[in-house]
Design a protein that fits this description.
CATH class of the largest domain: Mainly Beta
Structural class: alpha+beta
Strand content: 25-35%
Shape: globular
Length: about 200
């Protein structure tokens, strides 16, 4: 039996083999991720290389967040913004404010406690949510309202939509451990820029 068009908060087991990626110059396209590694920007006049290794490979549960049409050159592609769930997240990820634990329940269909990795939110081609016949997959479950609200708060934090944490928050929570957790989840290019800025700010 075919499923329904995915809605916000529903959970699906998918393989995100077609995702939207953006190069450093801002060109956004849908890419087929046949294998991890570096891929060339699709823009004909661009020589940028995109590292796609941070996109999850294989079958994983994902939380649907939003849907839209994505313009890739002259084509319009139906897409879903989705958040990956993993039960085997690294220890350093568990302490991040963007890794939210969701306990397994009959409602969400998860087998084990999983972490919603908000910082790895991605835009996935709608075809990844369909079977070989073109029918929508059947969802395994959906998250509770409280979990949905908690994920939304973490998205606001991640995208800096709400006010920045207060100075008091940083005073209370600042530590080398927290700095390392955030730093190690940055892209390689961002790490280099941050280190360079830190060095420039140091007063020798």
């Amino acid at each position: 039996m075919a499923g329904q068009k995915p809605r916000q908060g529903w959970i699906y087991i998918i393989n995100p083999y077609r995702v939207s990626l953006r190069c450093k110059l801002g060109h956004i396209h849908i890419y087929n991720l046949d294998e991890p590694g570096e891929i060339s920007c699709k823009n004909t006049s661009c020589t940028q290389i995109i590292n796609s290794s941070r996109v999850f490979r294989g079958q994983h549960p994902y939380i649907i967040w939003t849907s839209k049409q994505f313009q890739d050159d002259v084509n319009y592609i139906d897409t879903f913004t989705a958040i990956p769930l993993t039960s085997s997240t690294r220890e350093r990820d568990k302490g991040l404010p963007t890794a939210y634990p969701i306990n397994a329940t009959a409602r969400n269909g998860l087998d084990n406690q999983s972490f919603a990795l908000v910082h790895q939110i991605c835009t996935v081609d709608a075809n990844c949510f369909k079977n070989s016949k073109g029918d929508w997959l059947t969802r395994i479950g959906q998250i509770d309202k409280s979990d949905k609200e908690a994920v939304e708060e973490r998205l606001k934090y991640f995208f800096d939509i709400q006010e920045n944490p207060s100075d008091d928050w940083f005073v209370k929570n600042a530590s080398p451990e927290l700095l390392k957790k955030v730093f190690y989840n940055l892209s390689e290019d961002s790490k280099k820029l941050v280190v360079e800025e830190f060095i420039d700010d140091l007063d020798f």
